[in-house]
Write a structure and sequence with these properties.
Number of strands: 6
Shape: globular
Largest sheet: 6 strands, parallel
Structural class: alpha/beta
């Protein structure tokens, strides 16, 4: 297994950094190849702008079109090209980050904004009466699997089905479905640690054991069964889920998960 770990935490002695280091040592000890993109250590530029696209940038700037032209012509900035090459090398991607303001840290969102360019991660495939591009289960990154390893400050009860912060699966849906599944990546159930603001030393030992167990079963873990766009579940071109396919009483994001 070839694993890319994209790590987003500014403190090298943080829980997130410890989990990243543990992932590296555990996977390498099991015979896997590992590469790490430590975004803060890399001083990653989080803002997508014209400098990313070199001579392909237009005025006024058209981010999607210009990023695709820069990708096609090989004129993307070197740091972006390097991350795209890592994604193409990997068969598994782990994203290690804290949940900040109900989402990923800005530096990680900026990594997505800059690296997932047009024609690399989206904007591919035919558009016809039966197909609406290659996305949501198809695409340029199909064949890869991804796992979110997320630390959450609050207790698990706050993120339960009736918790005030909303279910954790709903909070992660935009990343799981909209960022990862969109370009064809299969998404594994997340590894979530709750109550990390108050985690004690003995609790870390239990968390580390659970994390190692997840890492060593990545290849056998079944992905979240998101519905694929072009395989009969959705009306085209409206892209509405066909009536009657959702289980009884299932609404919202959950209707896009099969079974």
């Amino acid at each position: 297994m070839k694993t890319l770990i994209v790590h987003a935490h500014p403190e090298p002695q943080s829980l997130n950094s410890s989990l990243k280091d543990l992932a590296v040592s555990t996977l390498e000890a099991a015979g896997h190849e590992v590469r790490v993109s430590d975004l803060y250590a890399m001083d990653w530029k989080a803002v997508a702008d014209a400098s990313d696209y070199g001579p392909a940038a237009s005025s006024p700037l058209k981010v999607a079109r210009d990023s695709g032209r820069a990708f096609d012509t090989g004129t993307l900035t070197p740091d972006v090209r390097a991350e795209q090459e890592k994604l193409l090398w990997a068969d598994t991607i782990i994203f290690q980050f804290p949940l900040w303001w109900y989402s990923m840290p800005a530096i990680l969102k900026g990594w997505v904004d800059r690296v997932f360019t047009y024609h690399f991660a989206y904007g591919v495939g035919e558009h016809s009466a039966t197909k609406y591009g290659e996305r949501y289960g198809e695409g340029t990154l199909a064949g890869r699997r991804a796992l979110l390893s997320v630390t959450v400050g609050g207790p698990e009860a706050h993120y339960a089905a009736r918790g005030i912060n909303g279910p954790i699966d709903d909070l992660l849906f935009p990343i799981h479905h909209g960022v990862l599944f969109y370009p064809g990546i299969e998404v594994l159930p997340p590894f979530v640690l709750h109550g990390t603001d108050r985690m004690k030393g003995e609790e870390y030992a239990d968390a580390a054991k659970a994390w190692q167990e997840r890492l060593l079963t990545l290849e056998s873990t079944e992905p979240i069964p998101f519905r694929r766009q072009n395989f009969g579940d959705y009306e085209i071109p409206s892209l509405h889920l066909k009536e009657g396919l959702e289980p009884a009483n299932r609404t919202g994001f959950a209707i896009h998960v099969g079974g």
